[in-house]
Amino acid sequence: MKHALVTGGSGEIGQAICRRLADDGHHVIVHANQNLEKAQSLVVKIINEGGSAQAIQFDLTDFDATSKQVTELMQRQAIQILVHNAGIHQDAPLAGMSKEQWNRVIDVSLNGFFNITQPMMLPMMKTRWGRVLAISSIAGITGNRGQANYAAAKAGLTGACKSLSIELASRGITANVIAPGIIKTAMSEDSFPPEKIRQMVPMQRAGEAREVASLVSFLASDEAAYISGQVISINGGMV
């Protein structure tokens, strides 16, 4: 049984990823920043369904706190699957964007990736097997009006994972980016009514969180051992 850590595991996409990885037979560590109760509720569901899981809470933007928690986890067993799913929106046109809006989004998505990944690397390398997956966005590929901060953070994950894939290739560790388009969540339903989705998406529907989770499942498996340094879009044909 491999241990998998999913940042932002209490959100809708994060929950789908956690449940799928648990179904695949992994012990899942469900990370939450503020929504610990949601993470704990998910853990109960996973265990009741026959899986193995635990919840953990820390602020990804705090390197010392993150490193401490991760180091304590790895004293029990190496974490060989990392899914960095955490991310936030603070949208505004760049001309009117505050420094705080820019920094906060970069801190969670991009700096958070460094903070969670860096302390895991040497222990993962010693096992000579690992999967690092970063959940990006179509905005990181195409950009998006009012989301310069979000697009910059998500695009930064691409450069980080491509570099990491080169550094870790000889150790049996892959690093890839998944870039979802419009995925059906409570947040996206407010922003993308059905008629807008039909105009934007060639498949004329939003994706499902379980479809993102299925892609994570494959890339975290032995079958994906020769796939690394890639950005894989899941967007219904948008780009």
Strand fraction equals: 15-25%
Structural class: alpha/beta
Uncertain runs: none
| The level-1 CATH class | Alpha Beta
**CATH superfamily placement:** NAD(P)-binding Rossmann-like Domain
Fold topology:
Layout: E1 3-7, H1 12-23, E2 27-32, H2 36-48, E3 52-57, H3 63-74, E4 79-84, H4 99-127, E5 130-135, H5 139-142, H6 148-168, E6 173-180, H7 186-191, H8 194-200, H9 209-219, E7 231-234
Parallel strand pairs: 1-2, 1-4, 2-3, 4-5, 5-6, 6-7
Helix pairs in contact: 1-9, 3-4, 4-6
Description of the structure:
By secondary structure, the chain is an alpha/beta fold. The chain has a single domain (3-234), classed as NAD(P)-binding Rossmann-like Domain (Rossmann fold, 3-Layer(aba) Sandwich), CATH 3.40.50.720. The protein contains nine helices and seven strands; from the N terminus they run βαβαβαβαβααβαααβ. The protein has helices at 12-23, 36-48, 63-74, 99-127, 139-142, 148-168, 186-191, 194-200, 209-219, and strands at residues 3-7, 27-32, 52-57, 79-84, 130-135, 173-180, 231-234. A seven-stranded parallel beta sheet has the order 3-2-1-4-5-6-7, with helices on both faces. α1 (12-23) packs across α9 (209-219) and α4 (99-127) packs parallel to α6 (148-168). The longest helix has 29 residues, at 99-127. The radius of gyration is 17 Å and the shape is globular. The model has no long low-confidence stretch (mean pLDDT 96).
